[in-house]
Amino acid sequence: MLQIRPNCESCDRDLPPDSPEARICTYECTFCQSCVETLLSNVCPNCGGNFCPRPLRPRVARRNGVGIEFQPASKQRMHTAFSPDEIREFANGTKDINPADR
After folding, report:
1. InterPro entries from the xrefs (predicted)?
2. Which residues sit opposite 63 in a β-bridge?
3. What pLDDT, in 10s, does the model give residues 43-99?
4. CA distance 65 to 60
């Protein structure tokens, strides 16, 4: 189950559970759409993968026991270990490789 992390790991922007701006990689590294497009060039600085919009967890339990009130979003803020310069260098060397070939 997705943790639904609360922030962009780069700029620390809040990304609430219903944010359409949240992007995740296959390991659930979480960044905002702006950072993914401008700084990261759609390359996760942690794993080298690409990003997709983060799914929205239902607000209303339309099935018994399933929804944000039963499986709340994480409150633990995460931050990438890499500097903006390290991220740019990594992204520049990776962004032209098709995500399926990374």
Report:
1. DUF1272
2. 66
3. 999 999 999 999 999 999 999 999 999 999 999 999 999 999 999 999 999 999 999
4. 10
Residue type (1 letter), 62: R
Q: Where are the domains of the chain?
A: 22-101
Q: For the chain, state the CA radius of gyration.
A: 14
CA–CA separation, 51 vs 34, rounded Å?
Answer: 12
Cβ proximity of 15 and 88 under 8 Å = no
User: 57 near 4, Cβ under 8 Å?
Assistant: yes
CA distance 12 to 53: 17
Ramachandran class of 66: left when φ > 0, alpha when ψ lies in -120 to 50, beta otherwise: beta
pLDDT at 76: 97
- For 101, the token pair is 């070939």
